[in-house]
UniProtKB/TrEMBL annotation:
Residues 8-42 form the Peptidase S24/S26A/S26B/S26C domain. SUPFAM superfamilies: LexA/Signal peptidase. InterPro entries: LexA-like (IPR039418), LexA/Signal_pep-like_sf (IPR036286), Peptidase_S24_S26A/B/C (IPR015927). This is DNA polymerase V. It holds the Pfam family Peptidase_S24. It comes from the Bacteria. It comes from Nitrosomonas communis. Signal peptide: none annotated.
Length: 53
């Protein structure tokens, strides 16, 4: 794997993917964008509905 370090993943590291695990906040996910692999930390944002004044 090449690219910037994230969560102690370094250039040349091999990543193992378990597709049976449901991604949760803070997990590292592997994606294919434009036929290239990339990995990112996933962040879920929680929006709260507010009553109009």
């Amino acid at each position: 794997m090449t690219g910037a370090r994230i969560h102690d993943i370094h250039d040349g590291d091999m990543l193992v993917v378990d597709r049976s695990v449901e991604p949760k906040h803070g997990h590292i996910v592997l994606a294919v964008i434009n036929n290239e692999f990339t990995y990112k930390a996933i962040v879920f944002l929680q929006w709260r509905d507010r009553a109009a004044p």
